[in-house]
Amino acid sequence: MLAVFRRLAAPAAFFAFALMPPAVLGQSRPAAGVVFESPAGLRPAGVVDTLEPYTRILPSGRLISPAGKSVVTGMGALGVALTPDDRFAIVTNGAADQSDSVSALDGVTRGGSSLAVIDTSTLEVVSRYRASDEGFFAGIVALHDPLNPQNVLVLASGGARNLVYAFDLDATGRLTRDAHHTIPVPPSDARSASAGHAFPSTIALAPDGSRAYVVDEFSGEVIAIDPATRATSGTAVPVGFFPFGAVVARSQLIVANGGLAGYSRLPDPAMAPPFETVPEDLQRASSLSFITLDASGAFAPPQLALALDRRPDGFRMVGGAQPAALVAMRTKPFAFVAMSNVDRIAAVSLAGAPIVVGGTEMRLFDRGPYGTQPSALVLSKDEKRLYVALAGINAIAVLDTSDPRHLHRLGLIPTGWYPTALALSHDGRTLFVVNAKGIGQDRGFMGERPSAVSARGNVLEVAGDASSIWSTLERIDLGNVDLRVSTTHALEYQRTVRPARHDRIVPLLGTARSRPIRHVVVIVESSKTYDAVLGDLTDTSGAPYGPGDPGLVAYDASVTPNLHALAMTFGLAGNFYVDAAEPGPGTQFAGAGVASLFTERGAFEDSAAAFGTSQDPEDYPRSGYIFNALALLDRSFRDYGEFVAVTGYEPDAAAGGLGGRFTFDTPAPLALAGHVDLQYPSFNPHVRDTARASEFVRDFGSLVQAGQMPDFTYVSLPGDRGVQAKDLPPLSEQVADGDRALGTIVGYLTHLPQWSSTAIFIMPSDSALSRDHVNLQRSYAIVVSPYAKRHFLGMRHISTAGVLKTEEEILGLPPLALGDALATDLSDFFVPKADPAPFEPK
Asked: Does pLDDT of 11 surpass 80?
């Protein structure tokens, strides 16, 4: 399979791993004369060789070719456990709303919440457990049953269902419900944002199997389960905010608290969220909690906490460090913590009072942007190696732990898409990796479950299926890994290094004052693929224009005349992909170039809405959004409708203002204070996009008249996200209304005096509701500017992060995250000579 990508990847001067500075994974800071691009080139996303089904080009333009052997397990996989004899691996799968999808690889594996049991010797799925009323999250353990040591007891966390499930695993690998199948987890405090709900996630097992410790991510507590009685033991112990990772070490339970604050219900609803940073609480935010265990494994005082980060300032430090995973040494008093939002492994001394004593950076290059996202850890049996899952670059990092205070990077091993869980065989020879996004979508999968059909037979309304992304379990024989070779491949799959051309993007010529383009507007729509709206494009002669399939068009030119006209008039990206299939992570990629692990993990759960809206402080990437970069440079910007729908936002058309009421004290980004139109509705399906467009013209017009047109403007048009209800128009009319709004906004902007120095980028944030013959994450991006090439069809592989990268280049901003740093920009969409003709709305 490696040979496949050696044919695919363009030649590039990759830096030798042996020459890396000590603080980097891949190379020193890129030289001034080079730029990064994704390695896909002109190739579309998907399978590249039918003989290698796990070798793929991702929507981001990066490549995957996992080491070892892989198998599809289901969707939304986040956890894995090996049985005590290593004979079986049990993988948790979420994504209950995709239970109708069947994998094309084997014709058997289905989506939906399930537990997959895999024979570790053959890597074949030998059984699957599913029940319509049950769902699973990340936590899972397998142990000798205290009631019958010849049997295996499996405990699996139920996430939003407030339960832990107990199963018996027989010698053939079949799971059956235990006699005490459900173990309730106490709900959280009634005053909190998660009132009445628990969310059991990670499960940590005592070394002797006498206790299983369940982390409740919502309540910020840990409970103990006695495997012998299949019941909770003792009372819950409070820890920090949104805890996740946990490990038992030296008679104590250590819990990683990934959140930043707890949110409470307001006495009376507010019309807007507070724009501020979270209160300082270093003991519970981005911290470790230490709970003493007595000889029986029960909780005992005292309890300690260790702060791992400072309070975010809202500008340079925006998101928390997000400690996500833990592992502890048996032979030495040390534990290691994966800090997913800051690309760091922290080494914590457990000799005496716990203290951070060292660790290592996991960034791809020295002082580079964040985004490798360490998500899981496992130690070798001799404790000389630490294996780190890097979800952001689809690789395992191998670290030398001979000196726990000073970890050394040894190399990388390629994985599938987005590794999130690890397990090591008891002999230490085989590493098992759960890849949450695995191989992405099936080859030829175009979307399913149409709910309405046009007279031509085309799908008009389709249930969301872009999230039909297949997870995998990967088995790596560590004895067969040559780290020098595997590291080279892992880096090749991430980026291509090219010499910088001085003319590569005309708007960047000259100083900031003399740049032709001084104003950037991005208009972000919802949930549409390329084929769904532009598959019927034709030129003036009637010949097809662009790589579309007219048979999959849901909203043709009669529904979206403005989008069609813009696509034909200006620069259209025909090989463009959204970086996320779902709206939550999609918004993160559009504004930050990366979605945090917290956001991604919530999107994998079948009740992802329980995690909020992906716009809370826990969701923020470390460097924040493009607004934060602009604020640091004292540049002007304006936000219309996005990054304000925090937990507690309840859409209410009668509320006016932001389109709803705010019932909790959850803050919105501090940098947006004074930069948000508080009369522009956020997501509310009862507010039409044409109403948003009218408010945009009113508010933006007042800024223009005052001579204060922003350098950057973000406009959200979420009205066609696909909500279907009796009191809402059909989806085709929602899309038509959004198109009218798009025409109004673009027509208005192109008739302003400042049009001569403006660039407009149009793209959806996700593609959850449409069909496409190439890939369900293929969508469209349109560049509208006097300096944009007219009637231009760009076929380079571009993603959401590439649009952000182009915005940053025009505005003179550094990359916010690894996603935009490594993405291909839209430099070939621009010309040096302006065409000032405006756009006339249809």
From this structure: no
